[in-house]
Design goal:
99 residues
């Protein structure tokens, strides 16, 4: 789901529910509009808050994944260097035995 639309979708769903409830309870038109406005504003703010929280979680997960990838690359590089050093030592010992 696209997070940019989350606050609007949440606000509109709450608005529809509010409209139905105010129709059922037979509020006056002024009361309906006032209640609808307040509900839509509150749910829009809640949607924005949810969006920011989820975005911050994604940012933390991306940073963690990046750090793990860097650690893997560093470990792989160290392992390759050790293997190269080991090969170099083995070839150096082989030359000494022959000479």
């Amino acid at each position: 789901m696209n997070r940019r639309t989350m606050p609007f979708i949440l606000m509109l769903v709450a608005g529809v529910f509010t409209c139905v409830m105010t129709l059922i309870n037979e509020y006056s038109i002024v009361d309906k509009l006032l209640i609808l406005s307040i509900v839509m504003l509150v749910f829009y703010m809640l949607g924005r808050l949810m969006q920011k929280v989820l975005d911050s979680f994604d940012k933390q997960n991306e940073e963690k994944a990046k750090a793990e990838e860097e650690a893997r690359e560093k470990a792989l590089k160290e392992q390759e260097e050790q293997e190269a050093l080991q090969k170099q030592q083995e070839t150096g010992e082989g030359e000494k035995k022959v000479g």
